[in-house]
Amino acid sequence: xxxxxxxxxxxxxxxxxxxxxxxxxxxxLMLLKKRQVKHVVxxxxxxxxxxxxxxxxxxxxxxSLTYPAINNPPPLAAAVILSGDALTYVRADDRFFLNKSFxxxxxxxxxxxxxxxxxxILSRGNNQWLNTGFLNEGDAFLKLxxxxxxxxxxNSIIIIDDVLNTYEEALKVKALLQQEKIDHFYLVTTxxxxxxAMKVFQKQGMSPVAFPVYAEPIALDRDSRSGNFxxxxxxxxxxLLYQLLHEExxxxxxxxxxxx
Length: 260
Fold this sequence. Notes:
Blueprint: H1 2-12, H2 15-31, H3 37-52, H4 54-64, E1 78-81, E2 88-90, E3 96-97, H5 103-113, E4 119-123, E5 134-135, H6 137-147, E6 157-160, H7 166-180, E7 185-190, H8 191-203, E8 209-213, H9 237-257
Parallel strand pairs: 1-4, 1-7, 4-6, 7-8
Antiparallel strand pairs: 2-3, 2-5
Helix pairs in contact: 2-3, 4-9, 8-9
């Protein structure tokens, strides 16, 4: 029930939904010759300005830098990579296209290749929306290793199954870390998701080291030394705003559920 409600809210907070919905409302009011049409037009213009303004980029950058990037990560026992709903399309010729969320897996793989960590732990991802011709994040990662002929010693890559959200990932990871006798590990997820993820894992008594991944280049536009922000006017701001709303609503819902 909680999962279904959260996915419904995800649809309702998509900013582009209202970019198309409000013009339809305006058209309907015009056809009905309603006086409120002027107010809706002004509301639409304000909304359009808001979601394309530099303010969204600024907020996104600030949120993404809650946990700064680690340039020279010290060795730890493991890295835990969080997965989500992202699916990878596989063509008929067996080639596939990586989505931007795959940067998490690539950064985690780099930690393993450089022997910064000895184990890589990642969830297979959510299978709720899995269709023929698509792979979830964990299976896409394993396929990439196979296609590139990359192999590792036994148990250096561990896949976790049957998780729907970050809370369930934390429970499975906690049990696995206790089994493997691992205390210190990197938590690898997108920078925008790191704040909620860290709260969930800390609530379970774990002490992860945040290893944020910047899936959006705009999150790197802040000079970490000077603290200055570069302001942008981007047409992809609606997506950035959606991610911000998704995380803030997620923190609120997780607080109500006692997950954080």
